[in-house]
């Protein structure tokens, strides 16, 4: 009887030597690092606070430092945890669904859709909306739906058609964004800060709005891990094992759309998390999506928290945008992973 275990993968997709039996301890170590980064995020910044001060503020929110900790650092820490997990998991899923190691959640048009929605709202309202989350979310989900409908084309969804549909929708929407932004200086000024991606200035309400969508997406991703492992065996074999391949591809894309749209609407289009983190995680977790997604849920937020802390410290008392720091951190890791993959395939 055929095995239901994940398929053999290229050598670059296997865990580092000896890491397979250490996957659980390594994941626990990553969780410990994540907890430490979350605590550090509350007291590190352009205005440093001691751990004792932060603890006192958490117990007595009327403390003089409450505005800094409660109104600023707690919301951006929660948002880093949520958006990091959402982007990393959605990146792992889209790479599995398209069998393209260079795919990222932007392939579904969520970044372009959110940007087009933000620009349209700014055009109608005369400036960036007071609640960009609600302005960006419909556009992101709508663009993902358009990519799916075009990619499916009534003949069933295929990875190549999905990639081409995503490229077409992205091109059209970004052309619209550039045309409107270049014609209106006020809209360009309002849009450019959001377009880079940042956790600064976000309120707790933004994290609370994004949490139900991201929580739902992460739960759906966990439920899809085993079916998508079977789908990786190939469509014919997966169907022979009784898997409804079209249904699980659709559910997988829906999960990617929900996660990426919520994260982009909350923090802007932060690049490299959805592309780089799955590559890093795969070196330790291997191709099994159950382990890969677990690592992504931890490593994605860890990358976001480290980047956000550095964004506060590198130019203190001013701050860099989180998306810029993520790109500087994520790009070298991604290039190293791609070089290892190229050597293994040579």
Automatic annotation (TrEMBL):
GO MF annotation: an example: transmembrane transporter activity
One of the GO biological process terms: siderophore-iron import into cell
Membrane topology annotation: Multi-pass membrane protein
Gene3D superfamilies referenced in this protein's UniProt entry, alphabetically: ABC transporter involved in vitamin B12 uptake, BtuC
Major localisation: membrane
Record GO cellular component, one term: plasma membrane
CDD domains (alphabetical): TM_ABC_iron-siderophores_like
Membrane-spanning intervals of the chain: 75-94, 106-127, 133-150, 162-181, 218-238, 250-277, 289-314, 320-338
Record bears the keyword Transmembrane: yes
Keyword terms: Cell membrane, Membrane, Transmembrane, Transmembrane helix, Transport
Record-linked Pfam families: FecCD
Location relative to the cell: Cell membrane
UniProt record similarity statement: Belongs to the binding-protein-dependent transport system permease family. FecCD subfamily.
Protein name, UniProt field: Iron ABC transporter permease
Source species taxonomy: Bacteria, Pseudomonadati, Pseudomonadota, Betaproteobacteria, Burkholderiales
